[in-house]
Amino acid sequence: MLRAFKFPIVRSLFFCFLIMLYLVTNHLTVLAFFVIGGGYSLIESIMRKKNLDVATGKIWIDLGGVLIIFVTLAFVLLDTSQ
């Protein structure tokens, strides 16, 4: 199970799932967003520093996490603008 977290797209999916869960249940506050985002950033920097990322060679899997994060950001911005 934890081996899957070596893939950047799995970490991005987990992060976006948490953000969307908080957004749907109306528990997404500024503090919660920054704590989850800070934790994600810390984990990403540790994984890159220790060279633990696994590259698959497929662009959609290796860089797909960035697209998922942008889509989640768009949902958050659209929801908070209402």
Chain-wise SSE layout:
Layout: H1 8-24, H2 30-49, H3 59-62, H4 64-80
Helix pairs in contact: 1-2, 1-4
Description:
The protein is an all-alpha fold and 82 residues long. Helix content is 71%, strand content 0%. The chain contains four helices and no strands. The chain has helices spanning 8-24, 30-49, 59-62, 64-80. Helix 1 (8-24) runs antiparallel to helix 2 and helix 1 (8-24) runs parallel beside helix 4 (64-80). The longest helix is centred in the middle third of the chain and has 20 residues, at 30-49. The radius of gyration is 14 Å and the shape is globular. The model has no long low-confidence stretch (mean pLDDT 85).
Described by the principal axes of the CA atoms, the overall outline is: globular
Largest sheet: none
Which spans of ≥5 residues are poorly predicted at pLDDT below 50?
Answer: none
Structural class: mainly alpha
Tell me the number of strands.
0
